[in-house]
What we know:
The chain is α+β, with helices and mostly antiparallel strands and 234 residues long. It has helices at residues 6-13, 19-48, 108-112, 162-165; strands at residues 57-64, 73-81, 118-123, 126-131, 142-147, 155-161, 171-180, 185-189, 201-203, 208-213, 226-233. It is 20% helix and 32% strand. Strand 3 (118-123) and strand 4 (126-131) form a beta hairpin.
Amino acid sequence: MKIQNPNFKIQRNDKIPSPNHLSFVIRILFVICHLSFVIFLCGCAKTETPLFSAGKHLTIDINFKGNIDTTLNKYYIIFNNNAAPKIPFMPEEFVEPGETPSQPDVDYYGKYYPTWKNYIVLDGNSFYFVKGPFTSEAAPTKEVMAVWSGAESRKIAFTMDMAKLAPTADRLNFDFITVDKASKIVKDNLSPLNSSPSPYYVFTISDSIAEGRDETTAVSRESLDILDWRVIIQ
Ligand SMILES: [Ca+2]
């Protein structure tokens, strides 16, 4: 920067700079420092100020045909910002980041996980929140978000803080997935015909609602069969 400035170069070449020259150099340096600081502040402001205002809470209700069974099944909610999360369907196994698939040829970290911003899984007696981005270098941390009561219920329902999801777009895409634990195969989700990425999203501003019914897929076990769902941002 200094060398590219022709005036500054000339002064640097003076063997004995006069006090006036020194004063000029100091002033130039001060202006450069000041401008750099302002540019730095602008850069910070850009990354910290979202272009949209997300609501504070996310509420999810999912109704199933049969009672939830967290011994035989796992239940997933996968989020992404403004793009559909991609899901591995049969014959590919549904495995989480950090798990070892029995089909090593499937490129989960290249094909699927880059489209998952973060996800929630109900397994055993807990809801876990798992934060991306997901890389093959390290298994992600699974944080216990809530305890599953285990009482007979056909509904998954909870409210969570939007800040936890850290949305970076005005649309929050999601998919709900049920997986048979033994086979690790997806049995139901929101995508039409279990073949394409979920087109479902909710706007992240307050008072947004997305809801739908999922009655087209025939699922062998009723506890795996999603019937209808609703997502509310408040
Ligand atoms: Ca269904």
